[in-house]
Write a structure and sequence with these properties.
It contains 28 helices and 21 strands. By secondary structure, the protein is of the alpha+beta class.
Length: 785
Amino acid sequence: MLGGSARQKILFLVLVGIYAIGVQFSATDKLERVGQPDVGWVVEFRNAISPSRLDASDLGLRGGGRGLAVNGVELAPHEFEARSLELLRRDPGASNTLRFARRGEILEVEIPVRNWTWRDALFTKGAIDVLALLFMVTALVSFVLRPYEPTSWAILSLSSLTGGLLTAALIPETSVVAYHAAYRFALSGLAASAVLHTALAFPVIHPLLVRSSATLVAIYGLGALVSAARLVFGKPAWGFDYVGVFGTALLLASILFLVARCSVLSARVRDRLIAQRARILLVGGIFGASPVALSLYLQNATEGTTIDIRYTYWALSLFFLPLGYVSVRQSLVNAAAAVRRAIAYGALAGLLTLLGVLVVEVQAYALALLLFPLLYWWPRFDQRLNARLYPRRARFPVLLQEVGGEMAASASVDELLEALVTAPTRFCDAQSAVVFLLPDVAGPDERVRSCGEVMPLGDAPLAHETLVKLMVTTRREIFREQIAVEPQYANIRDECYAGFERLGAELILPILREGQVIGGLAPGLRRTGDLYEPPEVFALQTTAQQAVQALSRVETLQRLRAREDEFSELKRFFPPQIIDQVMEQGGAAELRSRRKRVTVFFADLRGFTAFSERVEPEEVMATLAEYHAAMGKRIAEFGGTLERFAGDGFMVFFNDPVEQADHVERAVRMALCMQRDAAKLREQWNQRGYKIDVGMGVHTGFATVGFVGYEGRLDYAVIGTVTNLAARLSDAAGGGEILVTGSVRQELSGEFFTEPAGDISLKGISQPQPIHRMLASKALREAAS
């Protein structure tokens, strides 16, 4: 066990050591007595006797009694234990006459002396030693599961002290085990204190144990005083055992306090779990602990009541089993199903035992043949029993597949949550359920869905609930029962209860993605009234993780759709190769308005107005489509950005949205190719009688680029003087001409040919501009030829 202070670890070792000492006493006694003469009975205290051999029990000592005389000598109760030892014959083959009282009847038996055997050891102490071991194992399991918690300390202390007394019981005074009596006397008072400690720790921790350690000091201090008195006075020779009566009265009072506390809690407490734990312990206290305490008290307080102490010790199992159950189990399962399972297994075990006895009577080795069909049939029996006791669990695989399929088919987060929130109802027959995703998981706000009988959740964010914060911190499921009984939640118990009430939930499960809590699933009360067991919790956890995978698929699908929409939007402006580069850089979201150097190209049809007035509209549109197709091919080829088609004109710019170091040459090359394409189109148009040609203009300079418009209708535009000047050049160009500014001419290499076109005054430009006319380059001439 990790954690715990040095003081706690030492105390743990001390308690385990106390039980280990009792085991050592019991083992030493058996080793020393086996093979030695035995008279057939032992004196427990005063004149209470119990048989030490099976044959002595059969002769009449079964159940024990109160000794009256040994070998004809009458003895007083307070002197019986010491004087009887002097009167016994101990030689093998001899016999002793014992007169004793039992239930108002005087009996006399003659018991021979014989050597004690291991079979006698098992008869006398075997079952009690096993019982003490089971108590200690239960305590250790509880301590391992919940180390250093108040409930674990209580059951460990009780098991250690009680187990030590059990293992040290029924050892005669003639035994050579040193300090045996001192050990029993020391534990007698402390065991009563351990019972009182347990009564304060179960079924829910009493505030006295949480507030201060002074309570435990007082409890065990009282027990230590009783133990010290017993060590000082020993077994009184003057008659009445006042110390023993007080010690057993303390034990009985502690048991009665536990019974009373469980009675009150089971009847008045509002929390179902605490009430159920109280009822279970109430049964254990009434039928298990109370008979033992009452028997020990009566035997010390009166001389007329006696019973074989082993009978009363067996009743302790009815107390320790419920105690271990409520301390070890994290949740209390369906008690009715557990009882039915126990009955079924018990009936089957009885049937197999009877069958085995019958087979052995016929032939011994035939019993082994039963194992082969049994090994094959037993798993099927267990499977069918589970299907009968828990019919809904048998459908878990099918339900997991159904719910998982619905979530996988969800096209949105809301559809996914609608499928997930039905899982508790379908798996566990829950009356209600709530599922939520925290802010910034599927949007800036929480996503909440509920089903069943859920009260309105209110407007306050669930992320602010203490219960949800606790789940996010611990990253594990939280049960309402944990809040009720575990002390670490004492300071926030009311806030956590409020969270459970708001959600109408019995537990809350985290939805984890990459180790981080992104939401929660809160199933409500089950219609059967049962608590959530590990199989149900595991099924819901599996479904929650399926939801995480489905959520990732939905998010991926939404991103793809958004990317497709963005791609479709960008196709209006950019050629495919430019779009790919834009998407690699972060998409349209990264195309913020900025100022940069660009090269702008304008083209406009000459004679288009007259043409459109004298031909049919269909012919106009067909001619434009033919023209745009040819020009658009060149835009994509040279990586230009189309700002717009506007009737018979269009605008293209370069060096945005991606950088193009040769943007001036790209624009000019594109213009020259379009000039050649337009010449071919002009020949076709002339044949049809259309007098149409194309004028083009190119300018380079700084401008502001970015999206303009409003939501639902955006354009990617270039704004500035460079745009206006390029447009004016296009207007000034004649049919088949390409006019460029001096800044463009300076950027061109020697393979491009131009001729001066003079200084032209352009509309909107204050100063005349030196203009150049582009001539086909050598490469283009060769391509044209």
